[in-house]
């Protein structure tokens, strides 16, 4: 990288942050934004408010108030971020990624904290959880976070004292994570973001109601599911209302809802279906080159067939009597196995019947984009280093980190286009956001060029 390009990096940051000027009613807010984001993308070893403020030469209370009490529209900042991605980084094969990340915290004062599964520690622990929506190009040279939303546990709904102390809005109530994900998805779509595919882990894939909502939205997805999910490989016979009415004289009062015929097979676990049903058991395994890793090509073996899931919810969300659960519309069932490790994964997809299995597998195994994004945001931008407790402050920190992440993703993409750094051929080796100093832009140049 030449000296003129290094000198332009600092100016690029200022120009980028001007996209968010209309989120602030006063110039002080814009200056605080530049200070906070500049600190996150700096070479500071720790990116908490106090360290950022000391580096910038401002009182720490100034940035604390910027997060917690100053009047500015952080939701509009999310809109601007998403509109920027939709306008400048649209891709016909873009993948949307839904996942969650956790932040271990002590005490019980931080908004949303409780003992729950903490992915960063791999066990149940005291932590805060955020649900995130990511965006990635299938080739892997661009990825960013479109939205972060704090998960609010149900235990907080009844604790008025903690809610008041943490500044939780009166109308905020617990929502399941899949509903938070749907709301983020709808918001991103309203801002012009389009996904060719959506992918997520079994925490969301096992929720058939979530999958059917995506079906109604017309959103294609490839979802990882657990082997305990139930369904049919052979379509069962469903008795409709007309059939019941025709049998009135023989069967007494007709049933008012469809149900499975008595001779139909019961829904079974998909791992058992794949092992014992001839529909899947007799299909040959096919090797697919998924991507190139640091140690060479990564190959998975897979086979697929059509599957009907066991639907236990009515269209309005009410739970159906399990005795009257019905088959869903046909979907893909893909079972994939890593020949080196023996790891087996199961996926379902609403893609059309003629979709190549290789494409579905590429999408299904593309969740590393958002996992790498979380890693970059935590290790380089201080995503998990916040020390604030109030709800608004935590939520704003998550949004500002996404803004910082987008800047680094845009800068690296520009350097790839200019040929300054390598990228595109090896997704795993693609350089993620790294730390650099805003005042000394050579750190940024070095970080972005490092694979």
- Strand element count: 15
How far apart the termini lie comes to 15 Å
The fraction of residues in strands falls at: 15-25%
Low-confidence stretches: 424-443, 445-451
Number of domains: 2
Rg over CA atoms, rounded to whole Å, is 25 Å
How are the secondary structure elements laid out?
Blueprint: H1 3-17, H2 27-40, H3 49-56, H4 60-68, H5 74-88, E1 95-104, E2 114-118, E3 123-136, E4 143-150, H6 160-165, H7 177-190, E5 197-200, H8 202-205, H9 208-217, E6 221-225, E7 230-232, E8 238-239, H10 241-246, H11 248-251, E9 259-260, E10 268-269, H12 270-276, H13 278-281, E11 286-293, E12 296-311, E13 326-327, E14 331-337, E15 344-349, H14 357-364, H15 368-381, H16 391-418, H17 442-449
Parallel strand pairs: 1-5, 5-6
Antiparallel strand pairs: 1-3, 2-3, 3-4, 6-15, 7-10, 7-12, 8-9, 11-12, 12-13, 12-14, 14-15
């Amino acid at each position: 990288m030449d000296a003129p390009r290094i000198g332009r990096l600092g100016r690029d940051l200022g120009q980028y942050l001007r996209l968010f000027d209309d989120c602030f009613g006063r110039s002080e807010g814009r200056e605080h934004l530049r200070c906070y984001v500049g600190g996150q993308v700096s070479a500071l070893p720790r990116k908490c408010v106090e360290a950022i403020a000391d580096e910038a030469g401002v009182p720490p209370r100034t940035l604390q108030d910027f997060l917690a009490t100053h009047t500015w529209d952080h939701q509009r900042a999310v809109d601007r971020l998403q509109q920027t991605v939709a306008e400048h980084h649209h891709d016909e094969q873009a993948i949307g990624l839904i996942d969650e990340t956790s932040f271990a915290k002590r005490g019980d004062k931080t908004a949303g904290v409780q003992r729950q599964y903490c992915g960063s520690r791999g066990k149940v622990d005291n932590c805060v959880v955020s649900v995130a929506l990511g965006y990635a190009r299938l080739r892997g040279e661009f990825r960013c976070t479109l939205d972060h939303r704090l998960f609010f546990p149900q235990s907080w709904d009844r604790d008025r004292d903690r809610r008041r102390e943490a500044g939780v809005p009166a109308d905020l109530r617990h929502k399941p994570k899949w509903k938070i994900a749907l709301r983020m998805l709808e918001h991103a779509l309203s801002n012009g973001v389009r996904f060719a595919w959506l992918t997520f882990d079994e925490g969301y894939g096992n929720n058939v109601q979530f999958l059917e909502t995506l079906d109604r939205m017309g959103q294609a997805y490839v979802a990882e599911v657990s082997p305990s999910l139930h369904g049919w490989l052979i379509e069962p016979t469903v008795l409709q209302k007309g059939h019941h009415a025709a049998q009135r004289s023989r069967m007494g009062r007709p049933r008012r809802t469809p149900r499975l015929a008595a001779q139909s097979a019961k829904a079974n676990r998909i791992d058992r279906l794949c092992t014992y049903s001839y529909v899947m058991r007799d299909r040959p395994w096919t090797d697919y080159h998924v991507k190139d890793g640091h140690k060479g090509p990564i190959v998975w073996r897979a086979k697929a067939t059509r599957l009907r899931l066991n639907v236990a919810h009515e269209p309005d969300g009410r739970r159906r009597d399990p005795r009257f659960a019905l088959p869903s519309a046909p979907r893909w069932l893909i079972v994939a196995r890593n020949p080196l490790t023996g790891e087996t994964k199961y996926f379902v997809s609403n893609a059309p019947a003629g979709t190549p299995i290789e494409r579905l597998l590429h999408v299904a195994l593309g969740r590393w984009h958002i996992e790498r994004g979380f890693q970059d945001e935590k290790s380089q931008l201080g995503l998990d280093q916040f020390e604030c407790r109030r709800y608004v402050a935590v939520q704003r920190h998550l949004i500002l980190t996404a803004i910082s992440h987008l800047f680094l993703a845009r800068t690296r993409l520009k350097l790839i286009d200019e040929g300054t750094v390598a990228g595109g051929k090896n997704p795993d080796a693609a350089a993620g956001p790294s730390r650099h100093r805003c005042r000394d832009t050579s750190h940024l140049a070095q970080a972005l060029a490092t694979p």
